[in-house]
Amino acid sequence: MFAAFPLLALPVLLYNLVALTFPGGFRSAEASPKLTDPLFSIPMPSHGEWPVTLGDMLLAASLVVLFIELLKSTTSRSVAIVNHSLSMVLFIGCLVEFLLLPACATSVYFLVMIMVLLDVLAGFIMTIVAARRDVDYHTDRA
């Protein structure tokens, strides 16, 4: 039953856990600066420095999870329908959080929410296309 679980819930859950650590929790307006503060920097061959933030790391991890979710959505098993439905519920939850919670009103959360939406859309579209290919039309002409 693990295949029915939308994996993009993990980055959303991680964001929510990080948001709870802010002073004021979900009502905090300090989410954006906390997510954009550099955690460390990586020296580049161009002699520049690449500052890596918590938001960058969360978005990179979310993109990897989105890729895995897109691979999962190519199956036409019945568990895929449950996965798509749960992904739709996850998107609705993300949208509500984005609109109502100040700590979720950031670009990082918005992009994670868009990834969840893309997972929902791609999942339904791939399932419809796969189902269309699976339909076999027989005509009896005598």
Give the SSE map:
Elements lengths: L8 H12 L10 H6 L1 E6 L5 E5 H19 L5 H23 L6 H28 L8
Helix pairs in contact: 1-3, 1-5, 3-5, 4-5
Would you kindly provide a written description of the structure presented here, covering whatever features stand out?
With 142 residues, this protein is mainly α. The chain has one domain. Helix content is 62%, strand content 8%. It has helices at residues 9-20, 31-36, 54-72, 78-100, 107-134; strands at 38-43, 49-53. Helix 1 packs antiparallel against helix 5. It is elongated, with a radius of gyration of 20 Å.
Based on CA atoms alone, the radius of gyration comes out at 20 Å
Helix count equals 5
The chain-level structural class is mainly alpha
Q: Helix and strand succession?
A: HHEEHHH
Strand order of the largest sheet: 1-2
Strand composition percent? 5-15%
Summarize the structure in short.
By secondary structure, this protein is mostly helical.
Task: Name the features.
142 residues; mainly alpha; two-stranded antiparallel ribbon; 2 strands
